[in-house]
Every structure is written in C-alpha cells, then in structure tokens.
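Budget justification aside, the reviewers requested a transparent look at the raw inputs and outputs of the sequence design task funded under Objective 1. We therefore reproduce one unedited record. The lines immediately below are the structure tokens for a 128-residue chain.
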C-alpha cells in the first residue's frame, strides 16, 4: 500500500495507468495543490499526453497548463470515489486557474469506463 500523495503513490498510479488507451488531443500539464492535510500543503503534477500519464511527480511544474487547488479532505473524498470531481468543481470545492480549454479536453478521459476502472485499482493500493 502506498501512502496517499507520496511519490510512491504517484509512481504506482503511473504504472497502473500504462494500460490506458490513446486518446488523441487529451494532453495537459496539470499542477495539483492540496492544502490542510497531515503533511501540510502538498504539490504534485501530472503530464498527460494523448490520454497517457507520462509523468507524475511531487513538486511544482513551472509551465503547467492549469492548477487544481483543493482541500485535503475533498481530495481524499474524490480519490475514494465519495465525491465526484466534476461536482466538486461546480460547487467551488476544486478551484481551477489557467487554461480551462486544456482541462475540458480531459473530460472524455475522466468519464471513460477505462479511467473509472483505473481509479478503482489506484484506490486498492492507496493508504489514506
């Protein structure tokens, strides 16, 4: 089991995501900022190209297309499948700054059966 928001967790998620299908045009450089958790503010980023997760690292990405900011509690609820990420955004619980068009390009990926199955696999190896 990998501790949520650790580099090990990010690495395991990237390995599990290798089976995701190509999705042309679904590319983005995403920065996450999660505040109020047991380790304070945690920043990590994902680089997705054509629906494939190429890189996931703790830290900051200087040229991110957009930044997703949320509380630790909301991030855990999203990761556990208890809070829909789209609903959290609409409720203002997830704040997005930057290129909204890039974020919108990813919606078909996050709503796909393959992505939902991937989330289940990641949940199974995550220690909250």
């Amino acid at each position: 089991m990998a501790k949520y928001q650790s580099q090990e967790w990010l690495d395991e998620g990237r390995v599990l995501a290798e089976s995701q299908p190509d999705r042309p045009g679904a590319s983005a450089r995403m920065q996450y900022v999660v505040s109020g958790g047991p380790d304070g503010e945690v920043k990590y980023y994902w680089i997705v190209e054509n629906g494939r997760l190429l890189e996931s690292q703790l830290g900051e990405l200087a040229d991110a297309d957009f930044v997703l900011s949320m509380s630790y509690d909301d991030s855990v609820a999203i990761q556990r499948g208890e809070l829909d990420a789209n609903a959290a955004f609409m409720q203002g619980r997830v704040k997005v700054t930057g290129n909204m068009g890039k974020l919108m390009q990813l919606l078909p990926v996050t709503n796909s059966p393959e992505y939902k199955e991937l989330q289940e696999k990641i949940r199974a190896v995550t220690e909250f």
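The chain has a mean pLDDT of 96. The radius of gyration is 13 Å. Computational costs for records of this kind are itemized in the attached budget.
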